[in-house]
């Protein structure tokens, strides 16, 4: 059973976008693509993590970034955000260098990446998302505060606004991070495992939110682990294992063969992929 | 008796100014989990001070400030280089860099010692008692140079923290987002380190490095235990720092005289007082304090024990021995995992709530006690029944869980349990489940 969502974007009308597997270095990049990654290579301590990644992320898609542990999924998000030094290559956002485009990017890092005992409230954290809108030394204005409140409402945690963040459940923490990104009113959202360690009710409401973002023309890229839910959640996938194995619309690219290429000999994962594929048919 | 003089006032003023000036940026070090960075920089500013003196030839504040800025950046850059270039663990990288720089500083001071009034002792312990010897006329008063220096430093830190409040909060909490939004976390880290180096240099001469290190970390640590908001934590850090300085000087001039001795190092006493305050907060904090937690545990133990006793008394009345008083010994309390103190509190609870009256031979249930005991035993046996029937546990495995569950069973849970066990009247051990008391 194929559940295709998002018929609002049947064919991306970007000329440079190729739905077929990624070509070698030197793909034609569209200046209109939300994210263009040009031949990016990243290494930590001389150990390569990403090899020559070259692709365009099409606009208005909900993109799953899939691959085994250590495949460089988080690193790719960080490379797009300019948080890790690249050895070669560059990233452009809507055809322009990142530096002037930061406001267009909303980032949801992994939950464990911050100290949840930090003495700040939920509201403080959500307002942090808006710091990029005011510049050095400026305080947030009333409009920003209102925006933060709206973001809290959107993820249904308004009642927790004044709570210190250490007194939140995992699902609530994830909602705080989402609200922080939503408050940015970004056009592109990059999320690192937004479903990790959350309860199923939260997972459902996050999925709803992601679809809502996509349906209003936002581009969302999520690092995702659960192969079972890929087809239901995402309409576009990037399969990554240090290199881009392939990318394209889910129903074309999310195949057993491509998963085998991505996950190699990792049998347990392969078997769960097989189950996922069986469910789709 | 203590003789108070204007000297004491100035000592306290200088102590408070430098303590508060250190505690404010120190709070951010603590939150960034980089407290040891303060220790590292406090050692490595020594060559900065000495170098600035050797090159420029004076020790005016601006000279020292320049030395501090250079050394603040140098230290952070060197630590980063050793850590990443040499792939050394962070703490070790700090250790390597600050000991090397400290040693270099000592050599430089020795070299300059012939014609300088800089000496290693002074750097470690400071000379807060002597601050009044070096004064500058200001507004018709002779103000110690150290007071001006530390006051200026505090003011500069206040301006810095106010200006960078948003940026420091963001980059301390989530450096990744900070970078993503265009506030370079590395730049902010450097700026904070330079501010801390400058703070240290301004305070060194007056109060010495031991007090500086203490004030950088200890007052913020006290505040961290008590606060869950950033601004209150900063304010409270400042208050703890000021209190340590005042108490420190007061005890420096009083405590030793109690033992018939001359007064002792004021800076040392101030650092010690910070430690004393921390201990008090650590023990007494209502949220996470050791005392509060053990009191809570004791209360819980007493409650469990009193319920245990009620259960025993009820079973006795079931067996038709309601008139026989119950002795509940310390030994029995110990076997239930509770202390003598918990037993005493449990008896107090039973007496206070009017559940039992006490005779020389032991305890007897009152009417109210019988009511309460029946409720508990009913909950206990309902749980046992439910655990056996619904969870398929073996009857000899359900006493413990039921014991824990009965204490938290309110009316609505009890009703639901009764429904789900379908009005059973015997528990798995074939004892009668007491009927609900309102029937």
Task: Write a concise keyword list for the protein shown above.
heterodimer, A: 281 residues, alpha/beta, Rossmann fold, 6-stranded mixed sheet, 4-stranded antiparallel sheet, 33% helix, globular, B: 439 residues, mainly alpha, ABC transporter involved in vitamin B12 uptake, BtuC, Arc Repressor Mutant, subunit A, two-stranded antiparallel ribbon, elongated
How would you explain this protein's 3D organization?
- The complex is a heterodimer of chains A (281) and B (439).
- Chain A has 281 residues and is α/β, with parallel strands linked by helices.
- Chain A has a single domain (35-280), classed as P-loop containing nucleotide triphosphate hydrolases (Rossmann fold, 3-Layer(aba) Sandwich), CATH 3.40.50.
- Chain A is 33% helix and 22% strand.
- In chain A, strands 6-7-8-3-9-10 form a six-stranded mixed β-sheet, sandwiched between helices. Chain A has a four-stranded antiparallel β-sheet with strand order 2-1-4-5, with helices on one face.
- With 439 residues, chain B is mostly helical.
- Chain B has three domains: 6-285, ABC transporter involved in vitamin B12 uptake, BtuC (Orthogonal Bundle), CATH 1.10.3470.10; 289-353; 366-439, Winged helix-like DNA-binding domain superfamily/Winged helix DNA-binding domain (Arc Repressor Mutant, subunit A), CATH 1.10.10.
- Chain B contains 17 helices and four strands.
- Chain B has helices at 6-31, 35-56, 61-85, 90-112, 120-125, 145-163, 165-173, 175-180, 185-226, 230-258, 266-284, 290-318, 330-335, 340-352, 367-390, 399-406, 411-420; strands at 135-138, 141-144, 356-359, 362-365.
- A two-stranded antiparallel sheet of chain B has the order 1-2. Chain B has a two-stranded antiparallel ribbon with strand order 3-4.
- In chain B, α1 (6-31) runs parallel beside α6.
- Chain B is elongated, with a radius of gyration of 33 Å.
- The mean pLDDT of chain B is 85.
